[in-house]
Each structure stands twice: as C-alpha cells, then as structure tokens.
Amino acid sequence: DAMVIQNPRYQVTQFGKPVTLSCSQTLNHNVMYWYQQKSSQAPKLLFHYYDKDFNNEADTPDNFQSRRPNTSFCFLDIRSPGLGDAAMYLCATSRDPNSYEQYFGPGTRLTVT
Amino acid sequence: DQQVKQNSPSLSVQEGRISILNCDYTNSMFDYFLWYKKYPAEGPTFLISISSIKDKNEDGRFTVFLNKSAKHLSLHIVPSQPGDSAVYFCAASAGTGGFKTIFGAGTRLFVKA
Question: Are B99 and A55 an interchain contact pair (Cβ–Cβ within 8 Å)?
C-alpha cells in the first residue's frame, strides 16, 4: 500500500542534543510538509517542500531545519532541542501544489529530557 | 491567533444518532475547507471537503455544511457508528492547493454503542 512512513515513532533526546526525524513516502507526491502538534492543539505547519523548493513558515524557529534529498525522503532536524519542542511531529504529502488533500504519516512523538 | 476554531474538545453521541461537529473560522480569504479524521496512533486521514462556492457536500453518512456569512462549517455524521469514534480536525485553506492550510485543534467524538 502506498503510504507515508515516519521513523522513529517515539524519540527521546536530551536538552540541546541534535535530533533528526525522518519521513518517507511511496506516493510519489511532489509536496511534503512538516507539522508540529502539541498536546490538544492544532497541527502547526513548520515548512513544506515543493519538489526541492523549500518554503519556511515565517514563525518557524531557526532551530528547525529540513532536508529533502530526493522525492521520497524528507528529514526534520532540530539543532538544539528545548523542553518546549516536545511534541508530535507529523509529516504529510500532497500530490501537487494544486491539491488540497494531504496524506499524513503516523507521527513521531518527541520527548526532550 | 487561532484562525480555525473547534470550540468543543469532545462530543459524546449514542450509536445511530446524528453527530454534529462544528468549526468556526475568522479569515474571509479561506476558500476551501476539509475535515480529517484521526484514530489513535495513526495520522489524520482525509474525510470530506467543500469549496467556498458550495454550501453543502455529501459523501455517504458524512455531510459538510458551509455558512460563509457566519464563517462556520459543520460536519454531520448520520447515523453515527462506534467506528466513528476518533478525533476530527477541521482545516481551511486560502488560495490554490494546501500550502496555507490551517488546522483546528480537533474534536474528540465518542460514539457509544
């Protein structure tokens, strides 16, 4: 089945220790998104890629970076995690820039100790 | 500044009855609206959508109503089934495609057998 896969599902990191979350997709979609969702809050868009074109949301902290080495993979790097970065991180894809429907992975829950 | 609000964190409904989930938005530029459903340990999945040129869209047991003058949309599920128990996210987008999709915080629906 075509899908969006996120690894790991649970990640524990120490305060200030860099961490990378990964997302892969078998849908061959052009657009990939990263969202941050804190408890009982709305998913908040951090950035998206349209092919290799990176688009950062204005209020995404510089601490968050992303890489998309190819169509299938996208990474979220948190350079110096703080306690406030503990959240669920959701990866999503959409077929093209004109598509509204997004396909989500199961998320990675990040704990910062 | 929450542009998309789901004011009811949870809703409990008896099996077979109607479930009505509500969503309010503030940005008059939103022109496409979506509902996503999320089960535990899974990512949100697309359920139904509506363009701002319509006021109703129906898909089986699910109907979305849009009231542009009130900046309000609702999702009706009739009849409700225990398998509908999930978190439902309302989302709104301005412009073409999903690049600027804003999500609500979700409403947890419990359907009691």
Answer: yes
| Digit-coded pLDDT (tens) for B91-109 | 999 977 778 899 999 999 9
Tell me how close the Cα of A37 comes to any Cα of chain B, in angstroms.
9
Phi/psi of residue B64, each to 5°? -110, 135
CA B4 – CA A69 distance, rounded (Å): 33
Q: What is the pLDDT of residue B27?
A: 93
Q: Which residue of B has its CA nearest to A105?
A: B43
Q: How far is CA A16 from the centre of its chain?
A: 19
Cross-chain residue pair A42–B89, CB shorter than 8 Å:
yes
| Mean pLDDT taken over chain A | 95
Q: Do B89 and A97 touch (CB under 8 A)?
A: no
**What does the block give as tokens for A54?**
């990176």
